[in-house]
Amino acid sequence: MAISTSKAGRIAIIGASGYGGLQLVKLINEHPNFEISTLNGERSVGKSWNEINPFMKLFVDKEITKSNIAEIAHDSDYAILSLPNGLSSQLTPLLLEKGIKVLDLSADYRFKSLDKWKEVYSKEAAKYQRYDYELCEEAIYGFSEEFSSEISKSRLIACPGCYPTSSLSVLIPFLKQGLIESEGIIIDAKSGTSGGGRNPSEQLLLSECSESIKPYGVIGHRHTAEIERIASLIAGHEVNLQFTPHLVPMVRGILSTVYARLRDPGLTAEDCKIVIEAFYKNQPFIDILPVGTYPATKWVKNTNKVMISVEVDKRNGRIVLMSVIDNLLKGQAGQAIQNLNIMHGLKSDIGLPKITFYP
After folding, report:
1. Which end of the chain is more exposed for a tag (fewer CB within 10 A), N or C?
2. Rounded CA separation 350/3 (Å)
3. How far apart are alpha carbons 117 and 342 in whole angstroms?
4. CA-CA distances (angstroms) from residue 210 to 106, 162, 254?
């Protein structure tokens, strides 16, 4: 894709004060092709960004304001919504009507069926009235490496969840080529505490989660339906799987370990590594590790990378797929900027970090 020579894209960040919003501000502030046009929030309205975030100063300071569709439309080309589930759907139709392209970090447009969203997000559906069936159909799922062609032509991107990004990154190559059974897939995933957001929560207190690890949402976690939808789309038939998330005492990162049965039990780990390498050829954010080297979340911390490893258990014909991401970057804000690059006609990796600071 040719690099755009047009003016800098003007970006409104709606929901700038959460962890996702903070990452967006940092990335766009340093991006060579984008500029922040508007910062919207609730808790900090009327305050200077640099005043309340002295650790992340803007080159040109801005006041945090309440969302105003007319002002956003006047000042912006794109809006990135980092809002709670349900709330995004109240603003997105209005922004699109004004000609603003939208990237939504919530789950509001990740399902083609609004009825399915209402089923999975029943609490939010009871709070927010929604009738935007056509927009749900129109929205493109923003898994950048798989849907870049559609993303480049879309005005509404539903950015994936963090757990789905980590899980689907290893499942898609094998489901698409029919190399694994669609029955019996198990995803065991572990996330840092920033995945719970910035609002105070008892379970995220240091004294509660430090020196401990615990599963949650064991049956019916919301991301299960999202992963199954995309897995089914890729496989060409319905996929039901088991997904269990865990909270671990670190700030950033997700490790997903995915178990599936190979259709051809004669395949080796090296064979499967070649499959993934071929599938993600020339993708700047996908790193495939040598067989026998297993990924650590620290290796991708503060980057937009996905690091993948694969093993095959010859005793039972199962494949073990491992991936790590930074949940706030590749799992959230970084992938949103990757999609924004694609929409704006840029190379997908412009302005995004690829190398961690270690240790």
Report:
1. C
2. 10
3. 26
4. 28, 22, 17
